[in-house]
């Protein structure tokens, strides 16, 4: 095969736009790049400024360039008998066909391949498929992104890398891919089929590739998990017998110095080692605030490993985010394995839905049970490759793309459809591997969600433990509420129904029916008619559920500021024993749903039980298990809906949420305990020997009292079972951070700013951005205000070559937007809720942090409202006991985005003058770790910021 890798730069994205540059790289049969053709093209019109900004191509570059006809005359011979390749090839192909037509040539009729497809399939864990990101990941030189010759050459190298990867695949995987695309008349299918045939004719195909385990016609990276041994099986005596923690630590720190030339002991980390060790030794709980730069992960990991190995007592570590779990797995644990002087095992154990169920995946692939979109085929191909790479089967390793989540839902592991030891895949199962590893590990790293799922499952999910470390502990109360309460959405029920029966061809029941029709069992006719009798009930449930969701939506107040500041978000709190006036009309509909689901579940379970007894066919056994799991889900949803509609528990807050865009389809039902402190005390602080709670933000006004009350630790504090420590910061905040408050800045009420407020804010942000050369993060408390600022700020900064990136306006997840922000030389990133914490932008990429409003939760959010009422009943001030402490913790999280290393230096601007004008404002400032603070008139702010940054430049 001979390939031509094509790239065009154009005046825009429409087919009517003009080509301004052509790049073509020819890859010959021997996979060498034999020719690169490139030329500017005179488009006969001015190049739009944004295109010049993107590509660096200006009018003067193309003024004397040849016209399109001349360029096509040189290009057409190069396209003879080639396979056309491109990155997002459809774009370039359309322009090519158009250009051929205009220049009087026949259209291109050859095969077309897209490097994006290859990257998705062959490199399932790549975080981004953007050409610039891919080339930097692969170490490919890409000098001038968005110039056609450079892009074509870079794409050619990426394509060669993909061909290398294909060449390295085991034959079985290639056969699987070829079979997967066999029914699809596509160039990608043709390509995999051709490569498969070539590989089958190569000599030595009967020699098994030793890098893989082969099972049920899949090449896997994993052997049986039943062979995994405990970490110190061979050793006779305990490696820590007679060794004090101090001796152990000294040994580890010496090894760290050898391993990391820059390693230096930190006073705060040493204190943390001591405190955690003491809490473990004395069976006490510990609240320990460890700011950025403390090295808190090692601060609790080393004492946990020491305690666990020395006393043969498992330590459970829980994080709030999967991100932190991954960081511990990828960065901290491998480092410790190098420096701890004996073998130990740290296992990561997540919620079950994060692991692939191989049985479900095999069935889906063998049945080709895919939706109409091509996306599903690509996801299936991606996962076939991934099986030969993954050792964990964890979805976090996969870049699943936009619709991949729906595909994953159909193949994720879940307890209701697990065949356990009866499953042919049992010894290879990723979930059971993770569970086994957690069972034999010294330290298990899980997350808050899994902790509470375990509590609800009577501690059947996690291995038993007496010592718990909770990182990111300021989230514990919130997660507890969500898990100990109930949350269901419109799609919770709709998805279960669709998976059972979407139409007569799609869904697990139609799949079972088709299997029965093909089987020779004498009862199959009888069973088929039972399935047919279930369909109408499912359709009825769906219709009633749609109707109920619509009626619930009509109850919502038409005020868009009623929620957490998200676009057109509506919220309605429902008071226990005070039902809204139209509530009684809803009861009959809910009752019909209850009865119909009961009918479906009864018929379904009876049918499945009969079939299980009579059939011994694995594939129908597998389907029966999946359907049985879906029926259990449906029964749970029925019961949850009933308990919600009763509204009868005074200790629970009930509310509805939806947004104006998706209306009743976005309906969410919540029932959350008002106060989880009693449950936290009962499940954790009373039952465990010691619980260590750590975070960068646990204290308010240098005191832990707020957290002690929220988390149910008061009794432990009173009985001297609780230790508290606030670690000193390793940073020199007075030199590294300047906090500025413009004291004459206009104030604002609610989540929307008036014209004067918005125009003053945009002008100030734009002046600041110029002074700090972009590199600015702006934190909002309301998405609506972010939208108000985005367009005018973008316009104001366009002339200064500073990019504005807005969360929710520009597409991409939080981490994608953050990466884009770090990649641009000058940019301003506008973020709301999720950007206040967990975003790590060290170094020069972030110089200025602007906080537009103090992050108070909306007082009319149902949970805040209910907690406030409870405090009032206790004759306490809800504003000072709840709203202010919550906002301070959030404010400290936001402030923590700025200084991430000992070298970082930057400015924080707080536009909310309440911090200096109100009696509670001082609590916000006093809770910070000691930056230099100044307030001044708005007009003096930019000169002061410039002067402070210049003094930094002079010192360096």
UniProtKB/TrEMBL annotation:
Record flagged with keyword Ribonucleoprotein: no
Binding site for ATP: 290-297
Enzyme class: hydrolase
Family to which the UniProt record says this protein belongs: Belongs to the helicase family. DinG subfamily. Type 2 sub-subfamily.
Keywords: ATP-binding, Exonuclease, Helicase, Hydrolase, Nuclease, Nucleotide-binding
Protein name, UniProt field: 3'-5' exonuclease DinG
Chain span(s) of sequence motif DEAH box: 471-474
Domain named Helicase C-terminal: residues: 764-939
The encoding gene: dinG
Superkingdom as given in the UniProt entry: Bacteria
InterPro entries reported for this sequence: ATP-dep_Helicase_C (IPR006555), DinG (IPR006310), DinG/Rad3-like (IPR045028), Helic_SF1/SF2_ATP-bd_DinG/Rad3 (IPR014013), Helicase_ATP-bd (IPR014001), Helicase_C-like (IPR001650), P-loop_NTPase (IPR027417), Ribonucl_H (IPR013520)
